[in-house]
Amino acid sequence: MLLITSTLGPSNRYPNVEVMKKTLEAFLHSIDNQTRKNVRVFIACHDVPIESKYDFIEWGSVAVDDDQSYERTMTWIALPDMVSTEGLWKPQPFDYGITDMSRKTYHGAIMAGRWAIANGLKEFWMLRMDSDDLLANDMVAYLEALDVERPEIKAVYNRNCHMIDYRSKIMAEHSYPYSTTCNAMKMKVEEDGSIKNLYYHCRDHTKFMSDVHRDEIPSIERDWELCITTNNGNSLSGRPMIEREKYNRIIKINRDLEERYGLRSIL
After folding, report:
1. What are 98-119's pLDDT values in tens digits?
2. Hey, which of 60-74, 93-107, 213-227 has the most confident mean pLDDT?
């Protein structure tokens, strides 16, 4: 099974709430578009911005109950190990968007780990994504095939992905020199209920590839599993117009790409 973790900021912090909703819905559509449906999505958020028709989502709010302005947010101070400690979280002032996203990345991992244990999972894949990006429709099937054909593989990373500017309807092949945000790790629930690498995705995603090599985790590189939306006005990384992105090669949108990422939901 694939468990996907993601994050959302408070709706009142986005420059364009309607664009945030549009890209979020496109992200969820790309999950629903999977050829294999054995997937669950955990979104750490403040408020739930849309009424979703999908039943594979688990929303987890970090909002402080008496603070609807979201000037404060619940933050994990001590992370639970799923065995002997429940962890500790407390209200802290809302910080810059990237810091807030980093805090909620841990919450997403905790949500996924607790769900896995509660539902009796012994092994599962975990993958972290940004909530405005799109997943290739064969990703769940690919990971399930790895379990059978290459059971020794415990991590999947990618450097070559796609990028799309849904405003201009321009698409590109994007080749990073490092790993993107969309990396998968095989998790195992031990007999005592612990999950060794539960927080692995909470590190800098650009180092995922080097981290798994350093830790001697059997891994494999896979291209074209991710489509990044750019120039949408809401990205925390302030992405420019697609023509100005580094490492890009502009390509034509074709039917195969539309089906792969469910692009019709965003164009």
Report:
1. 788 899 999 999 999 999 999 9
2. 213-227
Render 179-215 in DSSP notation, one character per residue. --S--EEEEEB-TTS-BTTTTGGGS-GGGHHHHHHHT
Q: How many helices (H) and strands (E) does the chain have?
A: 5, 14
Closest-CA residue to 194 (of 78, 77, 116): 116
Cβ atoms 137, 35 nearer than 8 A: yes
Q: Check if the beta carbon of residue 39 is closer than 8 Å to that of residue 116.
A: no
**Nearest to 159, CA basis, from 234, 219, 103, 102:** 219
Residue type, 57: I
Residue 124 tokens, joined: 């599962």
As beta bridge partners, residue 220 has 156
Q: Is 165 exposed, middle or buried (0-12, 13-18, 19+ CB in 10 A)?
A: buried
| 13 pLDDT tier (thresholds 50, 70, 90) | confident
According to CATH, the topology of domain 2-155+179-214 is Spore Coat Polysaccharide Biosynthesis Protein SpsA; Chain A (3.90.550)
* Whether 208 contacts 135, CB under 8 Å: no
CA distance 127 to 118: 19
Burial profile 39-51: b = 16 or more Cβ within 10 angstroms, e = fewer: bbbbbbbbeebee
pLDDT, tens only, 145-198: 999 999 999 999 999 999 999 888 999 999 999 999 999 999 999 999 999 999
Domain coordinates in residue numbering, the chain: 2-155+179-214
